[in-house]
Amino acid sequence: MNTKEIEKILIQGGIEPNEAKIEAKILIKHFFGVNDVDLVLEKEFDESRREDLLLAANLRAQKRIPIQHILGTAYFMGEDFIVNEHVLIPRDETELLVKQSVEIIKSKQICRCEEYSDEAIQNNIKVLDIGTGSGCIACMIAKLSGAQVIGVDISREALGVALDNSSKLGLFNKAIFRKSDIFSNVKVDEKFDLIVSNPPYIPKSEKEKLQKEVGFEPDIALFADNNGLDFYQKISKQSPKFLKNGGYLIFELGVGQSQEVFKLMSEAGFKEIEIQKDLAQIDRVIWGRI
Fold this sequence. Notes:
Layout: H1 3-12, H2 17-32, H3 36-41, H4 50-63, H5 67-71, E1 73-76, E2 79-82, H6 94-107, H7 118-122, E3 126-130, H8 136-145, E4 148-153, H9 156-168, E5 175-179, E6 192-197, E7 202-203, E8 223-224, H10 230-238, E9 243-252, H11 258-267, E10 271-277, E11 283-289
Helix pairs in contact: 1-2, 1-4, 2-4, 6-8, 10-11
């Protein structure tokens, strides 16, 4: 059994060849317990889980279930996060949101550490992650900046996944979670240095045009009213009263939404608004200071 055989199964199921090549390697590494070097050297594998591998490959090809759901994990910023049908699968673009959030924290001289230390907690640095889902954003900001991050979500099932991920990474009291519909369960006197969100931003009118795989993820984490701008508007409008003076709001952006979100943030009183493009030169992250 090798990657070419798995690639063939996936491609026959309609998976794009480059994607099939990547996913075949992921599947073999997962089920055979090998690494990239083993694959390059074409070492002989312990094929005791061959049937499990074939089952997973055929499930991916025939049902188009996301590979992350089949394996129960998604790789994000060097960590494996638990995922299931209740949470959004972490995307590569979201790494920009996390990295810029950490840069904002460090630029305010909130924390100079590369990894977690007690410094940020002692300085009472707090971040709010709205729509935390799997908790991947909250966990990685806590891990990389040392800030204490509160992740909120309306879904109890998603919060259960986030808590499992926080525990898995040993982020007790660093990435913590609570049920809240945006700010509904956040007290006004809980002032934050940074509010971060990767909100639902796909217009509901686009639902039928999306890949079949997207249908396995929760609608509540994907789609928004007002041409995808509903949560940007609500969060921008309400954030100032939950931020410390000089605090920041940062969003991940959907395609073509940067100027509308820029306007919403400006109207809410945010200044020094900046936009960062992703590798595809799409406006992907926007942030501003109150």
